[in-house]
Amino acid sequence: MFRMHALELLPDETGREAVRRDWQALRDAGLPSQLDHRGSTNSPHVTVVAAPALGGDDEQRANDLLGPLLPVEVRASGLALLGGSRVSLVRVLDVPDALVRAVLDLRSRVRDVQHVGWLPHLTLARRMARADVGRAVGVLGHEDVVVTLSSLRRWDPDAGIVTTL
Length: 165
Known about the structure:
Layout: E1 5-11, H1 13-28, E2 46-51, H2 56-66, E3 72-83, E4 86-94, H3 97-108, E5 121-129, H4 133-140, E6 145-156, E7 161-164
Antiparallel strand pairs: 1-2, 1-6, 3-4, 3-6, 4-5, 6-7
Helix pairs in contact: 2-3
């Protein structure tokens, strides 16, 4: 199994704390949580693009297209499920049109992008049984959360390196 290289937007400290509160609430309820992910690079993030490989030109393009838009306020306005019999529970983000356009422009120039389109979200839990979703929604509540995306990073799983761009 190979791991995808990624370009990711990171929330500021206040945003990271808000996401980590969700992670902790799920864990405290005995539910799957991103806190269960023990990788050293595990932190709240919004994946912009994931692909089998990324080049330096992809990083530069990401900086050129996304850098001028940061920091940017986004609203986590709902919960969604991604997947099949076991799901990822995510907070879906409302993002400004300029950011959507920039991300789609970037994605159109990267080879072998993992998914078509872009669904901006913050992952709260992976591999959750569908039977636990109702309880998870109850734990997390229904309030919108405003998050400021403040920086961009590159994840290189082959080298095990995270680089702030």
